[in-house]
Amino acid sequence: MANAKIVLVAVAIVAVLHVSCAAARRHGGGGIPAVMTVNGFRRGEEGGGPAACDGHFHSDGDRITALSTRWFANGQRCHKKIRITSARNGRSVEATVVDECDSRRGCKDNVVDASKAVWEALGLDTNVGEVPVTWSDA
C-alpha cells in the first residue's frame, strides 16, 4: 500500500514537472542569451550570399534567421524553428534557421541575425540595430 502511494506521488510530480517545463519552453523560459541583429536575406543585401542551408536567397518578409557558427552546429539547425524572445518587451516569435552568421569571418559568437519580419513580429525597431534576446529550439 505504501509503495503504491509513493508511485502515485512520483507520477504526479513527474507530470507537474513535465507541464511546467513545456509551459516555460512556450513562453521563452530558459532561453540562451544572445544579441539579435538585423540581416537582409535577399540578393544584394548586407547578408552576403545565398543562405547556407539551401543555397537560396529569401524574402525579408519571412521569419528567418542566421545563427552564429557554434549555434548553427554545422547545419544541424537548418530549416528548424527556434523561439526568439525579446529581453526588452517579453514578446516571443518562432523563426526558421536558414543561414550561418560565420564567426570565423567577423560574426560574434552570440548572434541571432534576424530578418525584418522577426523584428516586426517582436514589436522592435530595426533602426536600433542590436537588441538583447534569448532563444531556444522550438
UniProtKB/TrEMBL annotation:
<dbReference type="GO" id="GO:0005576">
    <property type="term" value="C:extracellular region"/>
</dbReference>
<keyword id="KW-0732">Signal</keyword>
<keyword id="KW-0964">Secreted</keyword>
<feature type="signal peptide">
    <location>
        <begin position="1"/>
        <end position="24"/>
    </location>
</feature>
<dbReference type="Pfam" id="PF24300">
    <property type="entry name" value="KWL1"/>
</dbReference>
<dbReference type="InterPro" id="IPR039271">
    <property type="entry name" value="Kiwellin-like"/>
</dbReference>
<comment type="similarity">
    <text>Belongs to the kiwellin family.</text>
</comment>
<dbReference type="InterPro" id="IPR036908">
    <property type="entry name" value="RlpA-like_sf"/>
</dbReference>
<protein>
    <recommendedName>
        <fullName>Ripening-related protein 6</fullName>
    </recommendedName>
</protein>
